[in-house]
Design goal:
- With 428 residues, the protein is an alpha/beta fold.
- It has 17 helices and 13 strands.
- Strands 5, 6, 7, 8, 9, 10, 11, 12 and 13 form a nine-stranded mixed β-sheet that branches. Strands 2-3-1-4 form a four-stranded antiparallel β-sheet, with helices on one face.
- Helix 1 runs antiparallel to helix 2 and helix 1 packs across helix 5.
- It is globular, with a radius of gyration of 23 Å.
- The termini are far apart.
- The structure holds S-adenosylmethionine (SAM).
- The site of S-adenosylmethionine (SAM) has 18 residues, from helix 13 and strand 6.
């Protein structure tokens, strides 16, 4: 099947049905035989989402009235994306995209006309896009305003970073191999990587590679994980013999790192509400030869799953807006709405309240999100501290992030990291 058509269908699942790009690609790609075609479709879909607000603006300039047929609109966006951003010959991009519309003759003519008009007026259209608030940075208006409100100094940089492709970062399993030794293995395979001063397990690759090309991946010597996410285990500082609760644990990246970091953890209980995502925790732990107690349950209702024994450490990696990982999931810019934030903040608050009684006196809870919004981060923690006199914030003194009124915020792109937030709280 025509690769442009498949890409447009994937994009349409996101635009029309609100499906995540990952889910839409997961169901479309297995039907595509050639790896080259799969990579092309993926690049088209990620790119079209990343540049959606700019391309959509240009499309609206090219049309007299909005395109109601979202399948055709998706195809037009896929066409424009190739012309502006890909090294596809323009005539091939136009003819192949037009061909993809062959089942709708009216759309074929329209796509042809649109793409040719774009090529003719490219310079002036791009200039108009540069001068439009949302198109220039390719973000929805509400999100630009929200980021500018929370981070007036950093907003421009955050918006730019959101549109870059993130690097591939690795977490070396230091319980099994030293960082230096693993780096040498990579160099031996011509895979260039650099270390990160403040994160002893991390390597950042110059170029992404397929995981099966990573030495020892199947045997658990290494995992793929952003550097910001690798800071959780150090902050949790689990000591030998302690019981740990990882309360929103799937797919299990941080749970696995905690166990790699402290091989004498007494027990790690990993809870997640999503049974399907929990299967991924099982797979991850198996690959890394680690074990944990897995519980499918609602973190906001521990009475349904808690056995009454206290934990010395709790990691709450909360469900959040994920606005710190837009560069990895650019469809977030299309799917997330301003009014999603308040319910997420309420869910985080209810989980915080519910798990606090499970922490032993003197224990430490780490609260984390991959968000950059203050409402989900420092304001959330401020409210929690105000309501819990037995909660004492432990300041995070680190060479990364920005200290806020509470906790520490990593801005998207800082030292090549995702946007992330951490706060450490101990119990009196
Ligand atoms: C940010 S992800 C966790 C990532 C994970 N800690 C890791 O490092 O791989 C948030 C998780 O919270 C889970 N979740 C959402 N609501 C929940 C609830 N009420 N109780 C337990 N888990 C929940 C989601 O299913 C999702 O897997």
């Amino acid at each position: 099947m025509n690769t442009r058509l498949i890409a447009a269908r994937v994009l349409s699942r996101v635009l029309q049905d609100g499906q995540s790009l990952t889910a839409a690609l997961d169901s479309a790609l297995p039907t595509v035989e050639s790896a080259k075609d799969r990579a092309f479709i993926q690049a088209l879909c990620y790119g079209a989402c990343r540049s959606y607000h700019r391309l959509d603006f240009i499309l609206s300039e090219l049309l007299d009235k909005p395109l109601k047929d979202l399948d055709v609109k998706s195809l037009a966006l896929v066409g424009l994306y190739q012309l502006k951003y890909m090294r596809v010959k323009p005539h091939a991009a136009v003819s192949e995209t037009v061909l993809a519309a062959r089942k709708k003759p009216w759309a074929k003519a329209l796509i042809n006309a649109l793409l040719r008009s774009y090529l003719r007026d490219q310079e002036s259209l791009e200039l108009k896009a540069d001068n439009n608030h949302c198109a220039a940075v390719s973000h929805p208006d509400w999100l630009i305003r929200q980021i500018e409100q929370d981070w007036p100094q950093q907003a421009q940089n955050i918006l730019q970073e959101n549109n870059w492709q993130p690097p591939m970062a690795l977490r070396v399993n230091l319980a099994r191999v030293s960082l230096d030794h693993y780096l040498q293995q990579l160099i031996g395979l011509d895979i260039a990587a650099m270390t990160v001063d403040f994160c002893p397990s991390a390597l950042i690759l110059d170029k992404p590679v397929a995981v099966d090309l990573l030495p020892g991946f199947a045997d658990g010597l290494v995992s793929v994980q952003d550097v910001a996410a690798q800071l959780a285990a150090g902050l949790l500082d689990v000591r030998a013999g302690q019981r740990v609760l990882d309360v929103c644990a799937a797919p299990g990246g941080k749970a696995a790192h905690i166990l790699e970091h402290q091989s004498q953890t007494k027990e790690l209980v990993a809870v997640d509400i999503d049974a399907a995502r929990m299967l991924r925790v099982t797979d991850t732990l198996q690959r890394l030869r680690l074990s944990a107690t897995l519980v499918v349950g609602d973190a906001a209702n521990p009475q349904d799953w808690w056995d009454g024994r206290l934990f010395e450490r709790i990691l709450l990696d909360a469900p959040c807006s994920a606005l710190g990982v837009i560069r990895r999931h650019p469809d977030i810019k299309l799917l997330r709405r301003a009014d999603d934030i308040q319910p997420l903040q309420a869910l985080q608050q209810s989980i915080l309240h519910a798990v606090w009684p499970l922490l032993a006196p003197g224990g430490i809870m780490v609260y984390a999100t991959c968000s950059i919004l203050k409402q989900e981060n420092e304001q959330q923690i401020a409210a929690f501290l105000a309501e819990h006199p037995d909660a004492i914030e432990l300041p995070i003194d680190a060479p990364w992030g920005i200290a806020g009124s509470h906790g520490r915020q990593i801005m998207t792109g800082e030292s090549a990291m995702d946007g992330f937030y951490y706060a450490r709280i101990s119990k009196a």
